[in-house]
């Protein structure tokens, strides 16, 4: 159980560090009112925080340097590249058009033109193609040569990954996702794995046994009965709706967003709302709202 001073420090740290670029460890300790040793332990603890299916929340670390000038580097993964809806882009363009009329200086106008040009880019989903291509190349090599592969896998709805060993036999694309199928040596049977939940893949030795795997096309299988979770989010908490796309959404006049997320894993929604730290409110169902209140009391 965390003592109250440390808990408050951990809640404040990400925002405090985000406003500073590679802050000195000694400076950060003074600013946060703790010792250097305590701050090192805090950074290590934040680095271990993960969300189910999403991985690390904070990419923070202490980078050592000469003359005791260790620095804290990294960022919060909860603030991803901005992705705007069509409505968001329309509102921003209206605002920028008004800004051109009100702001006369040339340098300000240049900044507005630059922002206007970035709006379409901000709405695009960025995919690291190089990583995906390298992973597919290694899997194809393993399939062609009959070699085993080892990797870590994060099953849907679980908050940690596990080491797995597979003899891959085919790559399959279904419902917008790519899967590798093959013989799962940990379970001694055929299995499919989604590529976007797979990390740290390495090639192993050739499998001496010929593996015949005949699996149906992968498809989405609900983990349980689907429920509608009604949420209200501030602008700061909008990352939750980016990761849990709502079935219904309404942008309200006060700047908040009302949304309904349909999910068969309400615990996953609860995890996200907890990390949002009060920027997202669960309105319904009441059982989930009560569970959130119970978790919050445990943290305090």
Describe the model.
Helix content is about 40%, strand content about 30%. The protein is α+β, with helices and mostly antiparallel strands and about 300 residues long. The strands form four sheets. It has a five-stranded antiparallel beta sheet, with helices on one face. Strands 12-13-11-14 form a four-stranded antiparallel beta sheet, covered by helices on one side. A three-stranded antiparallel beta sheet has the order 1-5-4.
SS-based structural class? alpha+beta
In helices, the fraction of residues equals 25-40%
* Radius of gyration, taken over Cα atoms and rounded to an integer in Å: 23 Å
The ordered string of helix (H) and strand (E) elements is HEHHEEEEHHHEEEEEEHEEHEH
Report the major sheet: 5 strands, antiparallel
Distance between the first and last residues' Cα: 9 Å
Q: How many separate helices?
A: 9
**What's the arrangement of strands in the largest beta sheet?**
9-8-7-6-10
Q: Give the uncertain stretches in residue-range form.
A: 76-87, 120-130
Average pLDDT level: 75
Strand fraction equals: 25-35%
Global outline: globular
Beta strand count: 14
List the helices and strands and how they pair.
Layout lengths: L3 H15 L4 E2 H8 L3 H12 L2 E2 L3 E2 L1 E6 L7 E6 L9 H17 L3 H17 L6 H17 L1 E7 L8 E13 L2 E8 L4 E6 L3 E9 L20 E7 L5 H5 L4 E4 L5 E7 L2 H11 L3 E5 L1 H14 L1
Antiparallel strand pairs: 1-5, 2-3, 4-5, 6-7, 6-10, 7-8, 8-9, 11-13, 11-14, 12-13
Helix pairs in contact: 2-3, 4-5, 8-9
């Amino acid at each position: 159980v965390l003592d109250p001073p440390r808990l408050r420090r951990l809640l404040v740290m990400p925002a405090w560090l985000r406003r500073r670029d590679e802050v000195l460890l000694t400076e950060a300790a003074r600013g946060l009112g703790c010792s250097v040793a305590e701050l090192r332990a805090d950074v290590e603890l934040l680095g271990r925080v993960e969300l189910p299916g999403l991985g690390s929340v904070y990419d923070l670390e202490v980078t050592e340097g000469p003359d005791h000038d260790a620095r804290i580097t990294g960022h919060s993964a909860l603030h991803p590249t901005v992705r705007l809806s069509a409505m968001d882009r329309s509102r921003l363009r209206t605002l920028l058009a008004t800004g051109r009329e009100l702001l006369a200086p040339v340098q300000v106008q240049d900044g507005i033109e630059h922002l206007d040009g970035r709006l379409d880019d901000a709405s695009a989903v960025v995919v690291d193609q190089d990583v995906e291509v390298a992973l597919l190349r290694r899997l194809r090599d393993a399939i062609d040569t009959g070699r085993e592969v080892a990797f870590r896998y994060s099953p849907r709805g679980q908050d940690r990954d596990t080491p797995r060993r597979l003899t891959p036999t085919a790559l399959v694309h279904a419902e917008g996702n790519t899967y590798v199928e093959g013989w799962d040596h940990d379970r001694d049977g055929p299995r499919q794995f989604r590529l976007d939940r797979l990390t740290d893949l390495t090639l192993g030795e050739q499998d001496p046994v010929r593996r015949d795997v005949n699996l149906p096309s992968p498809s989405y299988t609900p983990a349980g009965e689907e429920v509608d979770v009604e949420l209200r989010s501030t602008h700061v908490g909008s990352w939750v709706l980016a990761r849990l796309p709502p079935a219904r959404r309404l942008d309200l006049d006060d700047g908040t967003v009302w949304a309904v997320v349909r999910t068969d894993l309400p615990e996953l929604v609860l995890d996200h709302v907890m990390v949002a730290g009060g920027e997202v409110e669960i309105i319904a169902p009441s059982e989930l709202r009560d569970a959130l209140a119970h978790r919050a009391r445990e943290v305090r």
